[in-house]
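Reviewers of the previous submission asked for a worked example of the structure-prediction workflow described in the proposal, so we include one complete record here. The input consisted solely of the amino acid sequence. No template or homolog information was supplied to the procedure at any stage.
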Amino acid sequence: MIESGEASVSVHGGERDKLGPGDYFGEIALIDEGARSATVTADSELRCYGLTSWEFRPLVEGNASIAWKLLETMAKRLRAAQS
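From that input alone, the workflow returned the following structure tokens.
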């Protein structure tokens, strides 16, 4: 999760999104333990917080509001990828 700063998201070299405070990235790789689906590059100095997979799963399983927010974000990204 980004506390401060800005970053760009690119997929196959094409910029897809901008991230800032409150945004997060890397959750897909934490969920399926697969390769990253995008590259995140800092546009300014970033202050971020991270979780390991063994911290992430219990947090999501034990907090429905976090799980729902993840589902909403993943659905949004899936729709964007299909268009």
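The longest strand covers residues 14-19. We consider this example representative of the routine output the project will generate in years two and three.
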